[in-house]
Amino acid sequence: MPPRLYPRAFSTRFYPRLLTIRPLTTTSSAFPPPPTLTPDFISPTPTHLLDIALSPYLNTAVPSDFPRWPKPLPPGHHLIYFPPPIPESQLLRDGSDAQHSPTPLLPRRMWAGGSLTFDSPVDTYSHAHLREEITNVVHKNGKVFVSFDRHIYTARSSDVAAIVEKRDLVFLPPATSPPPPRGRNRPPEEPDFAREFATTEHLLFRFSALMYSAHRIHFDPGFAAGMESHAGPLVHGPLSVVFLLELLRAEREGRIKGFVYKCLAPVVVGEVSSGTLN
């Protein structure tokens, strides 16, 4: 079974029948935008820096030698590549990019879940490109769920995507009160392996920098508390995914071919989280 991260819980099941598709009355007439194509050079520097940043949380040795030869990206490390090439003028007040937002009436966004399929390696020191397309927009109880298909192609996999990612973001109205207190999620069964860790503001800022992300909820305590009504900055959804994939890679032999997850609750910086394997 895939690993789980608590208190941000992940589930492999999704219930589309519970969602109601309604006319897009609250979305912008220019939404969704057309598919985008983003090229990138897979430099070894970002993945090397991510390994360094994560080493104290994964109990791994700090990489000392800079990788001088091509090697496959670890599963999930593609998330810090292919940053959207948009100017600051196209960022929203919270620092997120406007092209993914369905309407200014829903200014808050959260990572809701997704899936990853790894078909072939994406090597460092190579060129690749990302094709991203919004495939579904669903209205539910005053929220809007936006689904993205992301396909990464390399020179040797120009016809078949090396990595296929599906991700879901949820867009929310302005916060009017702090979220209700919640208990800590518990694994549904006794895990074979568990590791607890707590993130820091330093790690969150570093991960934002590697992603070229200005989303203030991840590194601005005043914004996270004042505008979003959270106890502090939130751990990135992609960072939680990378944690789980690194845990799976360290504790299970073989190649990771696919990964499905769902985010059930946010993780505030400093909260103790537990990654588990069953």
Give a description of the structure.
This protein has helices at residues 44-58, 201-211, 221-226, 237-251; strands at residues 4-6, 36-41, 108-118, 127-140, 143-154, 163-172, 193-198, 258-262, 272-277. It is an alpha+beta fold. The chain has a single domain (4-277), classed as Hotdog Thioesterase (Thiol Ester Dehydrase, Chain A, Roll). The strands form two sheets. The chain has a six-stranded antiparallel sheet, covered by helices on one side. Helix 1 packs antiparallel against helix 2. The longest helix has 15 residues, at 44-58. The model is unreliable at 1-26 (pLDDT under 50).
Q: What is the second-level CATH architecture?
A: Roll
Instruction: Give the rounded overall mean pLDDT.
Output: 85
Strand content: 25-35%
CATH topology: Thiol Ester Dehydrase, Chain A
**Overall number of domains:** 1
The biggest beta sheet is recorded as: 6 strands, antiparallel
Structural class: alpha+beta
Q: What would you say about this model in short?
A:
This is N-terminal of MaoC-like dehydratase domain-containing protein. With 278 residues, the protein is of the alpha+beta class.
Key phrases:
single chain; 278 residues; alpha+beta; Thiol Ester Dehydrase, Chain A; six-stranded antiparallel sheet; 4 helices; 17% helix; 26% strand; Mitochondrial_HTD2; HotDog_dom_sf
